[in-house]
Design goal:
The chain has 335 residues and is α/β, with parallel strands linked by helices. It has 12 helices and 10 strands. The protein has helices spanning 22-27, 49-62, 77-88, 108-115, 129-142, 157-177, 193-204, 220-237, 265-278, 287-299, 318-322, 324-333, and strands at residues 18-20, 32-37, 67-73, 92-98, 119-123, 147-149, 183-188, 210-215, 250-252, 308-313. The chain starts with 17 loop residues before the first strand and ends with a helix.
């Protein structure tokens, strides 16, 4: 396997901490919860995309790239971190963002995109983003630039490799802490790169834990159909000879609620509980729903109270401010 020989451009503060959350564990009646703090990767308020960007930016630099192009919503954590990574690497950044308002409020991640000086191109729908990214790349080539398109979420084989490496990091930390974890909880979304990398990494490293994906926007079958090919593309890219089947993937879609980026009551409850037990800030799109899934599994007995589980905190703090009214209402209600 060529994981250790892949080029990396240093962006993240690694290894991120793996720390116990005893107050949260007591509040839900067990299990022992370890938080993998990938919200502390450091780049422009951190998050899981920073790990992926270390590999993606390194790949871009090897090709003499001058402009990074990627896509997401106006409140995309990935866009924010890509814009910051471009600045660190001495590159420009173009963000193709789906937004129906001609002048959206400058808050959350979008505010930070503006602060970082990204060139932002609006499109009306997510479906329109790939074609516009290609169009922008063609325009930039005509101008003498060398563009590099990063898919949404940094989710290709290059980016997902970062979370294969993250599994080895986590396994080593468990050894150092003399802990044995049975489950690792992660957000599963349509970009799928983090879950795909973790699933492959867990298999390659013979990790003691199952990777449990809590879906935030898709059904289990749809999510698995996205994760599987990406995990296998990554396995091929890393020259592992390993294959992942859909039967090996674990995804729970019971916590999506009305849809993507629409917080559920359980999501809000999880956000408030994490803040008031551990001073831990979760977001209403990804990590709030993921912790809601973990809490439900614990309270239903699906996780034993004597087990140890890992919660991967993927960041997303700026989204709290983009949904400030909803967060404030819920926080006051539970004061």
């Amino acid at each position: 396997m060529r994981l250790s020989s892949l080029p990396r451009f240093p962006l993240a503060h690694l290894p991120t901490p793996l720390e116990e959350a005893p107050n949260l564990s007591r509040a839900i009646g067990g299990p022992t919860i370890l938080i993998k703090r990938d919200d502390l990767t450091g780049l422009a308020l951190g998050g899981n995309k920073t790990r992926k960007l270390e590999y993606l930016v390194a790949d871009a630099r090897q090709q003499g790239v001058t402009v990074l192009i990627t896509a997401g919503s106006t409140d995309s954590n990935h866009c924010r971190q890509t814009a910051a990574a471009a600045r660190v690497a001495g590159m420009r950044c173009v963000l193709v963002q789906n937004e129906t308002q001609p002048n959206p409020p400058a808050q959350g991640n979008y505010l930070l995109d503006l602060l970082l000086g990204a060139d932002i191109r609006f499109v009306e729908s997510e479906a329109a983003r790939p074609a516009i990214m290609e169009q922008v790349a063609a325009e930039l080539r005509e101008e003498g630039e060398t563009p590099y398109i990063i898919p949404g979420g940094g989710s290709n084989a290059v980016g997902a490799s970062a979370y294969v490496a993250a599994v080895y990091e986590i396994v080593e930390q468990l050894v150092q802490l003399e802990r044995m974890a049975t489950r690792l909880y992660v957000t599963s979304s349509s970009s799928a790169g983090t879950h795909a990398g973790l699933a492959l990494g867990a298999k390659l490293a013979n990790a003691p834990f199952d990777v449990i994906g809590i879906s935030v926007e898709e059904s289990t079958s749809n999510t698995k159909s996205i994760i599987e090919p990406l995990a296998n593309d990554t396995a091929y890219y890393l020259e592992t000879g390993v294959r992942i089947s859909q039967d090996e993937l674990i995804v729970d879609d019971r916590f999506v609620g009305p849809g993507y980026a629409i917080p559920t009551p359980e999501c809000f409850d999880a956000i408030v509980l994490a803040a008031r037990t551990e001073g831990l800030l979760l977001d209403p799109v990804y990590t709030g729903k993921t912790l809601a899934g973990l809490i439900s599994h614990a309270r239903s007995g699906e996780i034993g109270p004597d087990e140890t589980v890992i919660f991967l905190h993927t960041g997303g703090t700026p989204t709290l401010f983009a949904q400030a009214d909803l967060i404030t209402e819920r926080a006051r209600r539970q004061h």
